[in-house]
Design brief:
The chain has 166 residues and is mainly beta. It is built from 1 helix and 10 strands; from the N terminus they run ββββββαββββ. It has one domain: Proaerolysin, Chain A, domain 3 (Beta Complex). Helix content is 7%, strand content 60%. This is Lipoprotein.
């Protein structure tokens, strides 16, 4: 019977008490599995104002560009181990948040009838994550969540400029 104290009488009249073990198995760290990795780009905070075409946007500003990870609800507390797993198992180096201070410059022609701006996007990797946790009482792994998507910035300074419509 699990969890009960067992009392037995020894031959000399001594009572022997056997305590139940607190856990059947040693604890294990959660395991993360990555799948479906593909190149992506995260929007940064560097963007021009919108203009109506025909015209030309010329953007030049000294500012710290920033891009952060994004992902499915419920994985926020796991982003550190996920980023570590991505860096260890995928090509490149990844980070929760990328930033770089610089002077950013770009020009873009806007066609007649369009209202657009330009925004800098930073290279990232989008993956699906499955997390398994270990139940020490039953000595089994269980799936905490599966196929949750994260998009994590690369540590390297790799950026593209994209048009955005109003």
């Amino acid at each position: 019977m699990r969890g009960a104290l067992v009392l037995s009488l020894a031959s000399a009249g001594t009572i022997v008490v056997a305590q139940p073990s607190s856990a059947a198995c040693a604890p294990e760290k959660p395991r993360f599995t990555l799948s479906g990795a593909k190149a992506s780009y995260r929007p940064t905070n560097i963007a021009s104002d919108f203009i109506q075409g025909p015209g030309r946007i010329t953007y030049s500003k000294t500012k710290t560009a920033e891009a952060s990870w994004s992902g499915s609800v419920g994985i926020g507390g796991d982003i550190g181990p996920i980023v570590a797993k991505m860096t260890a198992s995928l090509e490149g180096s990844y980070t929760r948040g990328w930033s770089k201070a610089s002077t950013w410059s770009y020009s873009l022609d806007i066609a007649r009838g369009k209202t657009q701006r330009i925004r800098m996007y930073h290279a990232s990797k989008k993956v699906k994550v499955t997390k398994k946790t270990f139940n020490t009482g039953r000595c089994t792994w269980r799936t905490a969540y599966s196929n949750k998507t994260v998009d994590v910035p690369k540590r390297q300074n790799v950026n593209v400029w994209k048009r955005e419509n109003l």
